[in-house]
Design a protein that fits this description.
Helices cover about 70% and strands about 0% of the residues. By secondary structure, it is an all-alpha fold. The chain contains 8 helices and 2 strands; from the N terminus they run ααααβααααβ. It folds into 2 domains: about 70 residues, Rna Polymerase Sigma Factor, Chain: A (Orthogonal Bundle), CATH 1.10.1740; about 80 residues, Arc Repressor Mutant, subunit A (Orthogonal Bundle), CATH 1.10.10. It has a two-stranded antiparallel sheet with strand order 1-2. The longest helix has 25 residues.
């Protein structure tokens, strides 16, 4: 597919692509972004496409996969405004909001190395499971189970130490 064919394809199918994207995400701005991402991918991979008759299928499949990926990201990183966050924290903790970063780090560094490393890579460096598995040279399932177990171990450490050392924690309002 050369540039002229791509432009012709875009002119013919961008409305259908937008309609499909809008049916997926139900928000015009997100639908525009989804269509743009899909067409950018199509343009950057146009040399790899073998059958010009299946380009539309490829485009719609790509948009659907991009949508699923964005939904997964939204679920993982839920957006919340500052006022919402304050209200949420106050309601969740019944007015008492406490945190001590050093306290959490102390608990984190008490974890065994395999668990500590995956948590640091996943949460601090924001790497994906696949990236972590490549870095550590372990299967992706191992990374997933280590993260799950590490969170559970860290939670237990924090709660155990918290009941013994509650006086060392500071109010988030003091930070």
């Amino acid at each position: 597919m050369n540039r002229q064919e791509f432009e012709k394809f875009f002119e013919e199918h961008h409305k259908d692509a937008y309609r499909f994207a809008l049916s997926l995400c139900r928000q015009p701005d997100q639908a525009c972004d989804l269509v743009q991402q899909a067409f950018v991918l199509l343009y950057t991979h146009k040399e790899n496409l073998k059958n010009a008759l299946k380009v539309k299928n490829w485009l719609f499949t790509t948009m659907y996969r991009l949508f699923l990926r964005s939904k997964k990201r939204e679920e993982r990183y839920q957006y919340m405004g500052i006022e919402e966050m304050e209200n949420f924290l106050v309601e969740e903790n019944k007015g008492e909001i406490t945190v001590d970063c050093q306290y959490v780090l102390d608990c984190l560094f008490q974890l065994d190395e395999p668990y500590r490393i995956v948590l640091l890579l996943y949460y601090m460096d924001e790497l994906s499971y696949l990236d972590i598995s490549e870095i550590l040279n372990v299967p992706i399932g191992t990374v997933m189970s280590r993260i799950f177990r590490a969170k559970k171990l860290l939670r237990n450490l924090i709660l155990a130490k918290g009941s013994n050392q509650g006086k060392n924690r500071r109010s988030i309002l003091e930070i």
